[in-house]
Amino acid sequence: MSRNRTRLGIAGATALGLVAALLTGCGSDGDAGGGVTKLTFAASTFGDPGRGPKLTAWLDEFNKSQDKVQVSAAAVPYPTFGQTVLTQMGSGQGPDLVRFDMPEFEAAADAGLIAPLDKLVDVSKYDLIKQPDQFMVHDGVRHGIIFEASNYAMFYNADLIPTPPTTYDQFFSTAKSLTKGDVYGLAFRQTEAEEAGVWQDIFNYVYGFGGAWSDGKNLTINSPENLKGLQAYKDLYDANVIPRGADAATFRRMFAEGKVGMELNNGGYVTATRGQNPNLKFSVAPIPFPVRKQGAILAPIVINEASEAKEEAATFIRWALEPQNQIKLQEILGASSVATTTQRSAEALEETPFLTVFDELTESSLPQIVLGFEAKTPDIRKVVVQNVIAALQGKVDLKSALDRAQQQATELVS
């Protein structure tokens, strides 16, 4: 994948003291413990109450299989993860291995903080899933391996919706017919306070109606296709089929309580939904928009350029890519995909038959970044969301809002 590269100033951010202490000393214990190299792997998911303990046990399996390398987990809270880890890496320290989300991955790659993997991991040995894997390579240089890919789909209450909609018109009419009293047909984020979440939501409307934020070289925010997709989003807002003003935590709880009929979300939401209401009868189907293209949460695993033990860190990545370990990782992650092609177990499919829906969407899913302007995505996102919300609130018509966003974003990246 080719892109405009921008070096970022990262070291100026302030890290949290306690977490920083956990992440210092890349490969510093290389001669400790009778020649055992001790590494640190940082990931916000290690702190997940559902998946964290299972991921730690998976890591223990690696440690038991090795006599020269040991990897310990560092659970950094999601809200401070990017700032903390990038600050550490920018100062030449930090964890040896990192599970990044895409914006931080792009920022670290642009700043030269990630070690190239081409000479450390021979990817030709593995059956990598091509669609998400392409975003791990920048200008011919591989910087990451997919750790988790979580595709977006349509979640629906199967008691309220026996047959899921398969077109946007059906989607609209279903949302409208279900909205009665304290029950809403649909929910999505629509406030500036949830900027990142609004971006995730409107991404599906833009790409699902044949649009894109750029052509790889130029921004296309105000393209006719984008206008059509975002008009569909606004039409639903104007139809009062959503709980206006409700944040994601609120309307997801409402979905679990049977008070929201549909929501577009990623595979990671399956476990959370069951955690809120194990008895909820819900299912998943592809997003019923004209084009089968939707967002995905991509989380690469990378090696810190500052690590003194890159080969040992690569040993872990190569172990993680072995078929049996990929299968175990996918079972832990649930409805997400991993780096390679795997087969779901009969037990998993019996418990969650719609897992195959997520898996089949992998080849048509895209990370929620602006292609060609990856490191500038947060800035572009802010401009787009501000203007789209202004249109929702009736302050400006949608076409004018997108024209303004196009102009403002173009000035930002020039």
UniProtKB/TrEMBL annotation:
InterPro entries: Bact_solute-bd_prot1, SBP. Keywords: Signal. It comes from the Bacteria. Pfam families: SBP_bac_8. Residues 1-20 form the signal peptide. This is Sugar ABC transporter substrate-binding protein. It comes from Micromonospora globbae.
